[in-house]
Write a structure and sequence with these properties.
The protein is mainly α. The protein has 10 helices and no strands. Helix 2 runs parallel beside helix 4. The two termini are 38 Å apart. 14% of the residues are buried.
Length: 229
């Protein structure tokens, strides 16, 4: 009798274990499907941003950005040189509003920022200078502007050379590289999906989707199990 009872208990444990594994697998199927949407979007975005024409446009915009920055810096240098004789008077006039920041920080400047600054009136530009370290020290400001003009002229030359080489290499080379990159990404995605659940759960996005799927099952277990069996 005791032996029979033991067999029954063991069988129930096996059934419970199998049911638990089945539920876990269904939730895993749901999480796999969800993260595959992310994978698909990632591939789509990568392809969109790495075609020959999109890269060509991006490289050209980058050159234009640095050219705009050079114009802005040259305008500021021209203004600075024009007020050399009255610089000290202006410094003492505006010293109360000064901060330790430059009003033009080229490396942080986008194309939009550069275009907006070029449209600014002289009054608006003066207000920006007054609220920066522009009037703190004549030589430091001059050196800052001249140094950044050299830097961004260098960027213009560098990226122009890259753009010329890119165009010379042609569309086929870019498309071949894009195709190879997409295939490599797809292999990486498939490799991830074949991992054990415990390894997939180390990925924060996958863990989030697994929890979300688990919550969905708790709300409608029959429908969920039918869909992800």
């Amino acid at each position: 009798m005791k032996k029979l009872l033991g067999i029954v208990v063991f069988s129930l444990l096996l059934i419970s274990c199998n049911q638990g594994n089945n539920v876990s697998k269904k939730i895993e199927n749901c999480a796999d499907n969800t993260i595959q949407i992310d994978f698909k979007n990632e591939l789509s975005d990568y392809e969109l941003n790495n075609t020959f024409f999109s890269k060509k446009r991006s490289k050209k915009r980058n050159i234009e950005r640095h050219k705009l920055i050079v114009v802005i810096l040259e305008n500021e240098l021209k203004y600075l040189l024009s007020i050399e004789n009255e610089f000290l008077d202006l410094k003492y006039k505006y010293i109360k509003g000064m901060t330790n920041f430059w009003h033009i920080r080229p490396l942080l400047m986008t194309n939009f920022d550069a275009n907006q600054l070029l449209k600014a009136t002289e009054t608006e530009l003066l207000d920006k200078r007054k609220r920066s370290r522009f009037f703190d020290d004549y030589e430091k400001t001059k050196n800052y502007l001249e140094k950044n003009i050299r830097i961004h002229n260098g960027f213009v030359a560098k990226f122009a050379n890259e753009w010329n080489k890119f165009v010379t290499d042609g569309e086929k080379k870019t498309d071949d590289a894009l195709k190879a990159a997409l295939e490599l990404k797809k292999k990486g995605h498939n490799k991830f999906l074949k991992k054990k659940l415990e390894d997939k759960l180390k990925n924060s996005s996958y863990e989030k989707y697994f929890i979300l799927c688990e919550k969905r099952r708790s709300e409608s277990p029959i429908m969920f199990d039918e869909k992800w069996k």
